[in-house]
Amino acid sequence: MRFIIIGAGIGGTSAGIALKRLGHEVVVYDQIRENKPVGAALSLWSNGVKVLNWLGVGDEVAAMGGRMDRMAYYEGRTGETMTRFSLEPVTSQTGQRPYPVPRADLQSLLMDRFGRDDIRLGMRMTGISDDGAKVTVTFENGDTDTADVLIGADGARSITRDHVAGHPVERTYSGYTNFNGLVPVDERVGPADQWTTYVADGKRAAVMPVAGDRFYFFVDIPQPAGLPYDRSEGKAPLEEAFAGWAPGVRHLLDAIDPAVSLNRVEIWDVDPLDTWTRGRVAILGDAAHNTAPDIGQGACSALEDAFVLGIMFASNTVGIEDTLKRYELARVERAGELVLRARKRGHETHAFDPAVTESWYEGLRTETGENIIRGIVGNIAGSPINLGADVL
Hints:
Protein name: FAD-dependent urate hydroxylase
GO molecular function: FAD binding; FAD-dependent urate hydroxylase activity; urate oxidase activity
Helix content: 25-40%
Pathway: Purine metabolism; urate degradation
Shape: globular
EC number: 1.14.13.113
């Protein structure tokens, strides 16, 4: 069979690798003109890493991942340690060490493994036609292409999602803006092997280790959507939002070079969708389950989609529409649940209800790590990649 995948991100390229391994002809289109992913890095929890192992890139991913042995929360203004504990139970219970990884490096790896000769950049899809036998895609430049199946991995503002739903699907603002990037490791911010997070006033400033003696940093600022921002402002909004915070945060802000690595992203999500397929067309990744980053499962969920899609096309033979429906059935409940968990987590941590967030802060001061580990592992349990053997 011939597949067209729209979107050369983590989900699209991983799905393409899985389908090529089954012997299918696959071409990927993306509107980007070069590999410049949104966001500096991402969290690969055990379920996402296991899919990458299955795709045959496990060693490369381990090499680009940071060694994250511990987790700690500090009070944002005083720097007081609220809780600090080992993340080893995540590895021992799930059977795989998690890794924070640079997004551009992972995307480049997946594009290379898929085969760049079969990736067409600078191609923006504008239309989809499914006649029941073939799917035809139209691009902004007037070009068309036809295949047996179309997989829309075209992100948060997915055109394919609107086609599948039969109407435009609205996104929901999560209430905060995220700034992120890469900086050199600085032990004054946090240990080089620790996920370090400073919290206060519904804001957070966090770092995770990635390869190359770097920290992936991400900071959240609760604020209305649509506030003006020009790149020439650099880190001025961070200086204002985190004025007077602990020395570790001050050192982080000093290390940020906006000309080298600083991204600003308003955080939105999409209500869980019950329908992921229409005829010979299906959605995958953010197109299917645009999720806030509050539980770190967005990329992992896209990788799970790729795994299930590959398994379904390897094992079902009644027909394309039937196979896509089975893919949908296997994914909608779990992916939708993760969207809602992330939404709930964001509400708890960003002071949309100050009493709820203050209660969370108080809980952190007596936290031994057990409850947080349970939450992390709970997001991984139930992953299709675990084949039912979730937690030991």
